[in-house]
Amino acid sequence: MINELAISLRPTTIEDLEWLFQFQLDPEANYLAAFISGDPADKTAYINKYQKLLSDPTINNQTILVGNVIAGSIAKFMMQGEAEITYWIDRKCWKQGIATQALQQFLQQEPSRPLHGRTAFDNIGSQRVLEKCGFVKIGTDKGYANARQAEIEEYIYQLV
């Protein structure tokens, strides 16, 4: 387990996007995330999208660091008038408590409540992260998952 002091968050920079782009190319991570862009390998589209998001004052984009190494990202954004959480962890960092500790830190700095999180029905790791951080499953939805080329069920979580 990673020492809690080793994990930190800082505002995401344009320079971080190179690392974060590489993380989201992982096929297994894409499968579990399910609801990804149509073409995750399109680097130009990725960089352009996130450059716009970084300048949006309604979005809180943070880069997750373990020591001085980028391990992922976490963000709050607005979707249909509701605050939503999203995070992405480099697969090399899975099952080490990094996502849970990063989300705990993020929740201390992000005041939006209620805050919602969504996971694919079979993304047990992400469901556990949300639950450990106080999110409660409040419903389900169905949506088209680009990574699976099919409509799947997603679980909706909420933190009040």
Describe the structure in your own words.
- With 160 residues, this protein is α+β, with helices and mostly antiparallel strands.
- 30% of the residues lie in helices and 36% in strands.
- The chain contains 5 helices and 7 strands; from the N terminus they run E-H-H-H-E-E-E-H-E-H-E-E.
- The protein has a 7-stranded mixed sheet with strand order 1-2-3-4-5-7-6, with helices on both faces.
- The relative contact order is 0.18.
- The mean pLDDT is 95.
Fold blueprint:
Blueprint: E1 7-11, H1 16-23, H2 27-33, H3 43-54, E2 60-66, E3 69-79, E4 82-89, H4 98-109, E5 115-120, H5 124-132, E6 136-145, E7 150-159
Parallel strand pairs: 4-5
Antiparallel strand pairs: 1-2, 2-3, 3-4, 5-7, 6-7
Task: Summarize the entry for a quick read.
The protein has 160 residues and is of the alpha+beta class.
Features:
single chain; about 160 residues; alpha+beta; 7-stranded mixed β-sheet; 5 helices
Q: Give the DSSP E fraction (strand runs of 2 or more residues).
A: 35-45%
- Number of E-state strands: 7
* Structure class: alpha+beta
Q: What is the overall shape?
A: globular
String of helices and strands: EHHHEEEHEHEE
Major sheet: size, sense and barrel closure?
A: 7 strands, mixed
Tell me which oligomeric state these chains represent: single chain
Count of DSSP H/I helices:
5
